[in-house]
Write a structure and sequence with these properties.
Elements: H1 6-11, H2 16-26, H3 37-49, H4 55-63, H5 80-89, H6 93-106, E1 123-133, E2 148-157, E3 162-170, H7 175-178, E4 189-192, H8 199-207, E5 211-215, E6 222-227, E7 238-246, H9 251-254, E8 259-266, E9 271-277, H10 284-293, H11 295-307, H12 318-341, H13 348-357, H14 365-370, H15 384-391
Parallel strand pairs: 1-4, 4-5
Antiparallel strand pairs: 1-2, 2-3, 5-9, 6-7, 7-8, 8-9
Helix pairs in contact: 2-6, 3-4, 3-12, 4-5, 5-12, 6-12
């Protein structure tokens, strides 16, 4: 008989000792008034797993599991006002730093590894997504005259499908500006859309040994220095493969080196996609496949918006929004770790929904992950005559 709820078993996979280290480092438990940082983390994770729409839902949801709170490391369920108060005041960097720690600890499981490409370099997908907000409530989130928003500039690890870097800005920040401070390592590969075709940024990446595959804008000025032969029978979708130099008055100063330009025809949308890269030795098929892999970051954005709670916020301050986004990232990291360790082939949306339905059910987590639809055991056969004899 399992004595822990499904939610408690998921929480037990977190490293509380390391979390306490971050708490002491950032001194986030000062004046906590009974609602310490661990209770705050568990409350916000419950908000994500249960998709709570308000602080009332979080408070009442945890209060309904009073007998099981000690397994979560919580003394009592927090009140609505306490959650709101700490969401506004507790430093969100605590949850950000803990996410990056968990990424190193939980994000290295064998189930995450992809083998689509032969290249040994780390493949990183770069893009941003906009989360709309009501400007009258979130007046700090500047975007348009009558509309507010925050933007998540995300660098996604292709292997694990998890962000290795996230920069959250207001909605007005351009994509290339939001990516300016991304920490990169030599020989890594960045794949990005045309909003990142900033040649000063690309030149900076090239100078530190980073390879890139980026879709360029239609008004690019260049001259062709060399045309490569393309096997039209093997690669009928490839329109051209050439080495170019930029000729624009500003672009040629920002990026004076040569680039490789590959044009591929998209049959589904009946359009040409023009790519530039600083990698001259890869096959043309590898370059095209890398850009196709960029769709994985769009899937990540879809999953986090549909499965978790980052479209409606329980607090209106900037700190509260940041806490909710970072705890959502911790939640999706844990979900993908559970999905990677399970024998059953889960879809992420189904896994989230099933956990939500069974969040306080006492069942073994590993057994449930491997076989969620196991038939219940049959009751022992008993003679009907024996039952009737006992009854009368």
């Amino acid at each position: 008989m399992v004595n822990l709820t499904l939610f408690a078993q998921i929480i037990s996979k977190l490293d509380r000792q390391k979390f306490n280290f971050y708490v002491k480092t950032k001194n986030t438990d000062k004046h906590n008034k009974g609602y310490n940082s661990w209770t705050h983390l568990v409350s916000m994770l419950f908000c994500q797993f249960a998709k709570s729409q308000s602080v009332r839902d979080i408070s009442n949801g945890l209060r309904s599991a009073t007998g099981n709170l000690n397994h979560l490391g919580i003394q009592k369920a927090p009140s609505k006002s306490t959650i709101s108060y700490q969401n506004e005041r507790r430093d969100f960097n605590l949850f950000r730093d803990y996410y990056y720690f968990l990424l190193k600890r939980l994000g290295q499981q064998p189930g995450f590894k992809r083998v689509n490409f032969r290249i040994k370099s780390k493949i990183l997908l770069l893009d941003s997504t906009t989360i709309s907000l009501c400007l009258s409530l979130f007046d700090w989130a500047k975007y348009k005259t009558t509309k507010g928003a925050v933007k998540m500039h995300t660098l996604l690890d292709y292997d694990g499908g998890l962000p290795t870097y996230v920069n959250i800005t207001d909605g007005k920040t351009a994509d290339n500006k939001g990516a300016a401070d991304i920490p990169l390592t030599k020989d890594s590969v960045i794949v990005a859309d045309r909003f990142y075709a900033d040649f000063a940024l690309l030149n900076n990446w090239d100078s530190i040994g980073v390879k890139f595959v980026v879709r360029h804008k239609e008004n690019l000025n260049y001259k062709v220095k060399r045309r490569r032969h393309v096997d039209k029978i093997r690669y009928p979708e490839i329109r051209s493969d050439e080495t170019i130099e930029l000729t624009g008055a500003k672009t040629m100063l920002k990026y004076p080196k040569r680039l490789r330009r590959v044009v591929v025809f998209n049959e589904e949308h009946k359009m040409e996609i023009e790519l530039i890269t600083n990698q001259m030795t890869w096959s043309v098929a590898t370059i095209c496949d890398l850009y196709k892999a960029r769709w994985q970051i769009e899937i990540f954005f879809r999953d986090i918006k549909q499965c978790l709670n980052i479209k409606s916020f329980i607090g209106t301050s900037q700190n509260a929004v940041m806490i909710q986004i970072w705890t959502a990232l911790i939640t999706i990291l844990m979900l993908k770790a559970l999905k990677a360790m399970a024998k059953y082939k889960w879809y992420l949306s189904n896994l989230v929904a099933f956990i939500r339905l069974n969040i306080f059910v006492k069942i073994d987590l590993n057994t449930w992950l491997d076989n969620p639809f196991q038939d219940p055991k049959k009751p022992p056969e008993t003679s009907l005559l024996y039952i009737q004899g006992d009854l009368f």
